[in-house]
Structures are given as structure tokens and as C-alpha cells.
Amino acid sequence: MTRRPLLVATLVLAMLAACGGHHQTDADKLRAAMNRTALLSRRFVYSDVTGNTHIQVKGIVADDFRYKAATTINDVPIWEEVVDDDALADRALSNGAFAVFGRQAAPAAQRPTAPAQAVSASEPLHSATVAPAVRDALLAHRWVLDPVGAPSLLPSATEHHPVGADPVFDSLTVFRYVDQSIREAFRVHKFNADSLDYKPSEDPFPKPKKGSGVSRYDFDRPRLPRPQDISGASANQRIPGVANFRKMAVYVKDGRVIQVLEQIDVVSKLDELQRNYNVKIPSSLPTAQRVKIAIDAINAVRAAQGNDVIRVRTMSLQLLDLGQSVSVSLPTDVVEGSLGAFENRGRAAGPTTSTTLAGG
Amino acid sequence: MRRVSAAVAIAITVAIGACGGSTGSGSAAPRIRSLPSDLVPSKVLDLTVAQEDVHEALNQVTRTYLDATSVYSFRSADLLQATLQLSRFITASKYTSTKFQQTLVAQIGSTSPTQVQVGDRTVYLTAGNQQRIAVWFRGRYMFVLATREDFPQPRTLLRNLLEVHPA
């Protein structure tokens, strides 16, 4: 017998907390619906519109470690991806994909625009870590298989995933984004068109049809901070964040989420922003330009404070075929190598090597 | 069977208490037995599997919801890549209760567990000191898989071990 320490260090000396009754809020009900839905296989269509750029990701999720996704920008197919446990296969369908999915030198959090506008098209392929065979395969729109390159979709204390840096990651983690939005919202409540505080003129989202069995959960925005508001111990001035502009609605049917809609609506807050911060944005300017002036000013301060910038976007997620059997398999005609030159994928640094795929 | 040092901290479930517990409050366990060594294949991926001797650590447990547990190591060459602790609950525990399970999982690892679906199993993922930890339940059994952070195939290993069905 040998004596050697084991790797594992997971001592569980449990003291179960006393449990008390808990009133279930609408936010709790929504979270429960998300949890139920996340367990199901599904198809999805994710859409992210900023300015004139429309990114769409269509995908199939067999489970959390098996999925495939196809990305388009303005209806042009740019990227396909298949993940099977640790293995990742990617195929660039357009050179525009390299700008969208390439590992960014500058923090994506500082980029309010779509990534396609932020870096030159083939920049990631010039990285010294990209093997010539991988580069050639990507440029020839062939599949590249990285046997151990699958992205982690889990929350991480050390990795930051600003919205917009990786559309596939964003599309697969919408529920986490909604959960964060619940925490940031002033209130989450079930939609009620007969409520006294419901304002149809401020509602950009479709109402559930009567008798459809669909419930809608709405997110109320927190009020804009005032100039004298400071943020915690930093004593920094509190600057508006995305939650102050977010309109969000989540549609639930049979206890499962079927759609998420979000609109970062700055227009309706322009007057209040000008009042609060004593600034004047010429009303003669087109609305889009007025929004840009306001958001650019806010983002300049947010970036200086080290916070994510606000992306003025419209997002939607549709979930289809919940719980139906789907199949996800890796492509067979592949070039094997590291996909570490791409955001969240492969290993960020180190030599490019080929590895035997797990399980043969 | 390998014998591990007393410094080894295995996932010994000593859940005592209120909601989700047993009909009593934990069990003054006379002895936690070992599980058969062949519950886990001797080779998984290209890792060599061995059952570890943890009886010294188990002797220190006085109250527990387990009646049996074993730790299996997974090595490539001589390097330990992963361990699996397979534990069986006493019948009096509420091992089928999601609340009971989640309370146990919450005490493993250093991060809040994230629930994922892998095949037909719900798996809880968390992290330890330079380790990835996955926890799942099957009948009376709880599985705690810890893999070295730089082990390149943690998901593939996990999916393979989800096929382990103790009788």
C-alpha cells in the first residue's frame, strides 16, 4: 500500500441551516421557470441589434456540454460552432468572423459597438499561437477541431465576459444575464394590463394573447442616479448603468421560458438625463445622435471608473422545441489544432498542439 | 487498495440538522463501510483507476448520513488527475430531496455551485483549490468528482463517470 496525498480537498462538515417559510415572489417564480427550462434540450434563436449591426445566433442545445450554434451578421453567415464535452469545432464562413470572435487585445468591456467594428478582420490569425494549418483551414472555411478547447460557460471570479464580446457565449448564457437583470431591476412583476401603473405607451413588448397560457414577467428600471449620489466606499459619483435603461420582458408558458426580450431604451430617459446632469443636447439633432451623445458621455465616465460600458441594444431570445430529442455531433472532416486565438476558446497562450480526442 | 495519508480531506458528509435531514438528526454511525472496488471501471479514458484506503479518515467521523463511502483515484502515469468519492446514504436520510442534496452540495467547494444538465443528469459544478468539482446524485448514492484544474478532459471524464450505476 502506498501513502500519498490525494488531490481532492472537499471536506463537507455540514450544518444545515434552519429553514423557514418563504413567500415566493414573481422574481422567484421566474427564476424557477428558468431553472426548469435550462434542464431541457432546446433550439434557440438569439438576436442582438446595435445600431446597424444585427447579430443572430441560431443553435441547438442537447445539454450544457453539447451544443451547436451558427452565427450571422446582417444575415451573412460568419461562424459555426459545435461543442461536445471538451472538444470544440469551429468553422469561419466569412473573414468577418475573425474580428467578432478573435481574442481582443483591448478589453471588450470598453467597446460599446459590435465587435465587428472594433478590430481589423483577420487580426487574430496573425497571432503567433495560430498554427499554419489552422490558419489555412480557417481561411479556407474548413472545420478546425480543438479536442480540449471547449469554452467554459460557467460563472468565474477571474474571467469577465462583457456582453457583446462573444455572441455565442451571450446566446448560451441569457438566463444568467436575466438573473443578473433581476438583481439589478427595481422590481420584477407579472405583467398586468389592468394595473394602474401600467403605461402602454412605454411598453415596447407584445402582450401575451388572452387564453394562450403565456405569462409575461416585466422588469422595472431603477431610477436614474442623481449627480450627488455616490457609489459605496469608492466615493465615485454614481453613473447610470445599463439597468437604468433596461426594459425587459420574459415570457413563460407551462412553467418554461419561451422568450426573452430586452430593449436598452435611452430615448425615454434623455430629458431626465439632461435635467439631472444639467446638460443640453440639441433637440434639433436626430434622436439616434442625441442618444449617442448621452451614452458616449456616460460611457466615458464608466470606462474611467473601470466599469462595463453601456451597449444600446435590442436583444431577443426565442426558445423552441423544449425537451425534444436533439442530436449534436462533431464534424468529421476537420483539421485538428488549437482554437486558442478565439475569445473564450482553446487555451489563450502556449504552443499549438494536437491531442487525441477523448474516448477515441 | 491504496492507502492515503491522514491529511487527505475527503468529502465526508456529516449533515446534521433541520430541513431535508433524516428522521433523526444524523446518524451516530458505528462504522462507514467501503464500497466495492469494482463499482468504477479499472480504466477510464486512459486513466488508471484505483480505490484508495481512507479508513483512518472515516474512523474520525462520529455522525453521518452515510453508511458507505469509497474514494477512487484516476492517474495518468503516476500523476493524480482526479478523484471520485462515491458515497451511499443511510436509508433514513432524505436523499431524494432536492433541498437535502443542494444543502450538501453547497458545502462542497469554494464557489457557489452551478447547476448544469449533462445527459439526463443534473450535475452541480463548483471549484476547490485549483480543482474543478462536479457533484451528482443517483438513487442513494452521491458522487463527488474532483479534477486537477489543468486536466484537459474534465467534461469527458464526467460524462464517462455518469455511466457508473451502483447496484
What does this protein structure show overall?
The complex is a heterodimer of chains A (360) and B (167). Chain A is built from seven helices and 15 strands. By secondary structure, chain A is an alpha+beta fold. Chain A is globular and about 60 Å long. The two termini of chain A are 32 Å apart. Chain B is mainly beta. In chain B, 13% of the residues lie in helices and 38% in strands. In chain B, strands 1, 3, 4, 5, 6, 7, 8, 9 and 10 form a nine-stranded mixed sheet that branches. The longest helix of chain B has 9 residues, at 98-106. The relative contact order of chain B is 0.18. At the A-B interface, strand 1 of A face strand 1, strand 2, strand 6, helix 2 and strand 7 of B.
Q: What are its keywords?
A:
heterodimer; A: 360 residues; alpha+beta; outer membrane lipoprotein receptor (LolB), chain A; twelve-stranded mixed sheet; two-stranded antiparallel ribbon; 7 helices; 19% helix; 25% strand; globular; disordered N terminus; disordered C terminus; B: 167 residues; mainly beta; Protein Transport Mog1p, Chain A; nine-stranded mixed sheet; 3 helices; 10 strands; 13% helix
